[in-house]
């Protein structure tokens, strides 16, 4: 008998959340940093989301993880959220268009493949073709237009993508808390780090943030963190990794559309071409093994 089909509605809803909600967070961050200091906003986002998620899990009877798992989750939170998301938030505060930030972050699967090779994870030629194409897209993106005029912003987003990729690969090789508890610990740890670094870096909240700023922070806490991470965990458990990570090439498109429609951002023809090249590269890396499966080896006669 074939296994029962997964309910279509939860799968479709989870994909919609990752595609649209995670894609929209770049635009919402852009709105938020207009009235919040960037590291303070990121710290409040992750600390609040992590505490709320932890309380929810504890009320459902989920046990606290052991010290080893907690330590590993805290390191992953530092790499993915404190460094990864924190640098993206800083870059958008320095006027890097939200759509371009999403395009650069879309390169995470490319860097993850490279780091995975260092950890002994096997790869295929089609995936390395994606790396070559993706690097060409990154060079094109940084050779003209907005990022060429903001080298520090481009460097911060590139470092963010590298940190996120390394943290993702390293996190897949170590013991972490079960289920959503890993996300809760990661967000709490990242939030604490960002809230400590914020005043040390000279950030000060000189005025009460605007209503739009509070709405942006609330959206990032509830939808961008708590709901989206649970949608991602659902997809990881109930579908293939290729489907679960397909947000990587949908998010940039959503972010660019929102940025151009509501934030007055514009992309040059060179940047549109770079976007298309990077998306093709990410598709090859994430879906290459499914689009171009290896030929089956003939069985030997015994």
From TrEMBL:
NCBIfam families: PRK11272.1
Keywords: Cell membrane, Membrane, Transmembrane, Transmembrane helix
Entry's localization field: Cell membrane
Protein's UniProt name: Drug/metabolite exporter YedA
Pfam families registered for this protein in UniProt: EamA (PF00892)
Signal peptide: none
UniProt key word DNA damage: no
Stored SUPFAM superfamilies: Multidrug resistance efflux transporter EmrE
Residues that span the membrane, as ranges: 39-59, 71-90, 96-116, 128-146, 152-171, 183-202, 214-235, 247-266, 272-292
Organism, as annotated: Pantoea osteomyelitidis
Protein topology in the membrane: Multi-pass membrane protein
Organism classification: Bacteria, Pseudomonadati, Pseudomonadota, Gammaproteobacteria, Enterobacterales
Sequence ranges assigned to domain EamA in this UniProt record: 13-142, 152-286
Family: Belongs to the EamA transporter family.
Predominant location category: membrane
């Amino acid at each position: 008998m074939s296994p029962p089909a997964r309910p279509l509605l939860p799968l479709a809803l989870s994909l919609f959340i990752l595609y649209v909600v995670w894609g929209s967070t770049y635009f919402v961050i852009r709105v938020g940093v207009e009235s919040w200091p960037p590291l303070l906003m990121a710290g409040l986002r992750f600390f609040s989301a992590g505490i709320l998620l932890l309380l929810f899990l504890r009320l459902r009877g989920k046990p606290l993880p052991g010290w080893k798992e907690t330590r590993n989750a805290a390191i992953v939170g530092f790499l993915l959220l404190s460094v990864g998301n924190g640098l993206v938030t800083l870059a958008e505060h320095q006027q890097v268009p939200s759509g371009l930030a999403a395009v650069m972050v879309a390169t995470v699967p490319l860097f993850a493949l490279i780091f995975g090779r260092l950890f002994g994870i096997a790869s295929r030629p089609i995936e390395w073709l994606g790396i070559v194409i993706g690097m060409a897209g990154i060079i094109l993106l940084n050779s003209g237009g907005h990022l060429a005029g903001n080298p520090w912003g481009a460097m911060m987003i590139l470092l963010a993508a590298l940190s996120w990729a390394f943290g993702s690969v390293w996190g897949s090789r170590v013991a972490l808390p079960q289920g959503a508890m890993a996300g809760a610990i990661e967000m709490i740890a990242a939030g604490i780090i960002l809230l400590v670094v914020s005043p040390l870096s000279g950030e000060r909240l000189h005025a009460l943030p605007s209503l739009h700023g509070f709405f942006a922070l609330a959206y990032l806490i509830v939808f961008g963190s708590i709901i989206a991470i649970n949608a991602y965990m659902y997809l990881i458990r109930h579908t293939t990794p290729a489907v679960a990570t397909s947000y990587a090439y949908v998010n940039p498109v959503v972010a660019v559309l929102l940025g151009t429609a509501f934030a007055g951002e514009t992309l040059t023809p060179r940047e549109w071409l770079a976007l298309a090249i990077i998306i093709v590269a990410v598709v090859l890396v994430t879906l290459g093994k499914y689009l171009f499966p290896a030929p089956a080896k003939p069985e030997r006669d015994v």
